Structures are given as structure tokens and as C-alpha cells.
Amino acid sequence: MIENGTGGANTNLNGLAFERQTDLAHHLANDFNSRYELAEYPIKRENLVKKGAKDSHFLVHDRINNEDIGVVTKQFQFYNVLKQVYGIKNIHHKFWKPDEAFFNFKRRTVFIVEKKYQNGSGSVDEKLFGLNAKRVLYQELFNRQMKEPVIPVEFIAMFNKSWWLDGQTLDKVTGEIKKTQSVDYHDYFDSLRNNGVRIMFDHYEDWYFGLES
């Protein structure tokens, strides 16, 4: 997750709360506890593309239908799950680190989430256009290594409403709202949507991921 435009030094309680609130595994375990059960998803040794990855990787089990519907993971662990589930390796010069990834077996779809928390204007604004390219790069992993029908990638940009819609700036010491200013990211959001990026604010649209209560 990128915050402000000056790195992690400006992380505050609001940013940490946003991170917890948008943790997909935590969301499933707490808000869908009666429907889904999460258990650690074991990765075979031969599929450890990123051997040092310490990030979570959970198998999602549907209690009602008694079936495994997917895997939730993040960061470098994404590539280990990718190799194990689909036998696919990274073909790009760089390993991207998705903030959240959901391999939905039932829908044959991989959902990638990139989070953008901000409490003031900064260089992150310009970096938004890079999300369009990232979506294409993730899709290329499947396009160039699978026969049809190729697994589709759905790319989600998760923003904090307090800044991106309401223009609230925060005091870095107290974490309290310092002032509210006029912001207009409509052109940015239009560009993302036109390039197939789904936009969400603070909370997941569960239906979009194929999740049922």
C-alpha cells in the first residue's frame, strides 16, 4: 500500500486502520464467518517461486456447499500460489507485490487489489496512471502462458474516501482532521475505469468478488 507520496514515515493510525479494514482475509474471517472458513493453504516445495515470502495464504472453504472456492493471499506469496494453482511463473523483469489477491476457483477469475491511502496531495496522484499498466501486466501472465479459455484478471483500486472524495487532510502527530479542501480526481478515476480498473472506497463490494453471505 502506498501512503501520501513520501513513504511509510507518515503512516498514522488512520492509515493503519484503513489497512486493517481492507485486509481481505480478515474481512472474510470476521464478516463471513458463518459462510466461509479460512485455513492455511500449504504450498509445495517445488512451487516456492519466492521462497522467502512470509505473507499469508489462506484456503477459503464454503461451509454451506462444502467446497473450496479459492485462495486469499498477498504480496510475494501471490507468485507461489500462482505457480501452485495454475503452473504459471512470473515472466516480467519485476515481481509486483499485490496488496491483496483472491484466486476464485468457482468463477475462474483472479482478483488483484491495489490500495491507495492518502491524507494530502502528493506524488501518489501521478502514480495512479500506473495502475492501468499493472492490470495489463497481471493479465499477461495468463495470456502468454495459458491456452484458451484464459483466466481473466479483475483489478481493483481501493481508496480511502476521506481524502480522495472528501479532501480531508490529517495532522501527522494527532491523526485528527486538520482541514478539508476541495479535491477532484474525476479525470483520474475516469482513466482507470476506461482501462478496466474497478474503483472502491474503504470497503469491498463483496458481490464483485463472487462472495455470498
UniProtKB/TrEMBL annotation:
It comes from Limosilactobacillus vaginalis. This is Restriction endonuclease.
